[in-house]
What we know:
Blueprint: E1 6-8, E2 14-21, E3 24-31, E4 38-41, E5 53-56, E6 62-68, E7 71-80, E8 83-93, E9 98-99, E10 109-113, E11 118-125, E12 132-138, E13 140-146, E14 153-160, E15 163-170, E16 176-181, E17 189-194, E18 200-205, E19 212-217, E20 223-225, E21 236-242, E22 255-261, E23 264-270, E24 277-280, E25 291-292, E26 298-302, E27 310-314, E28 337-341
Amino acid sequence: MRRPGFTIAADGSYAARLAPRGEVWCPERWSLDSPEPYVVPLPLDQPEEPDTEVLPLADGRVLVHRLADGRHMFSLLYPTGPGTGQLPLGAVETAELTLLPPSPSGSPAYALAPGERSSSVWLVAGGAFGPELVAQVPGRCSGGVWLDRTGRMLALDQHLDGRTKTVAVDLERGGEVSPLLQIGDDSDDRLLLADPGSGFVLVRSNAPGEDRIGWGQLGSTLPIRFPEGLRLEDCVVTPFAIQPGQVLNPEACAVALRIDGAAGSWAGIWSPQRRGTQQFAAPYGWLGSGLWSPGQELLLPYVTEDTPCGLARVTPAAPEPECLPAPVAAEPGPEPAASGALRPVPLQQALLTGRLTGG
């Protein structure tokens, strides 16, 4: 699965994307933790291919993943005055490989190489001697969600024996694998997003009889809920950011959504307490992703001819903006729940100390 075209570091400090410059492609780095965001192009003598992947590190460097002659090659780019510095990191020879989301620990970067019988997790930046194989997981894996703030526990969607279930991979125990999300025996269950602070998670499952988005809490024995507010008729709903800072009240976590329909693409905000979904027009030139600020505003990056690096700000508590389409009313009746429950990660019990498990 390819990462979105605009990737944000786990701490929100930087972002990176492959940007068009005339008829060629060029990596660029966005600085997001300054009073005003700004962009730094990172051009090289050779333009990038359109399938090149880029990923920001917390130290300001940008990891680049290129495919050439069947080899997946990795380099770090960084600004050097008027030019761009490049540090080659080595290569991995495999059929498929894609970068995983930025690690919460900041500097390491990982990639996933899916195979028909097993999948490999590679440390591609931050190792001592180039790319290192750190985990081998049975089945064909996809996705990738970090479950803690240290970059130790990684959730992967594992397709095995005809079903897809989410498993947790402990990167400090040689890639030890344990079950994480198994809603029903015959359902396909995938983890979409997780907030390590509150344990709030979003999942996608066909356990309710059709493919639905649901929510739960890591470590809780309560069933996954599948609210109507995340089920919009004739639209594709893609969650992309969970509001942090709700450690003692996970049900207050707001979720940022990209909504795609016949009218185009727009944005939304949903939370278990809201029950309905606040929908609003995204800024012109929106890059389809975003992040929550420390002040609990939703920041939506956009690019126009006049604004090469823009952030639109949305406050969930503000009056409902003009919606596309009309706002979804609060749904009546109880939310459907899956027959099973989100199960805790056995290997992560020490990491869950002090976390509220109700919800």
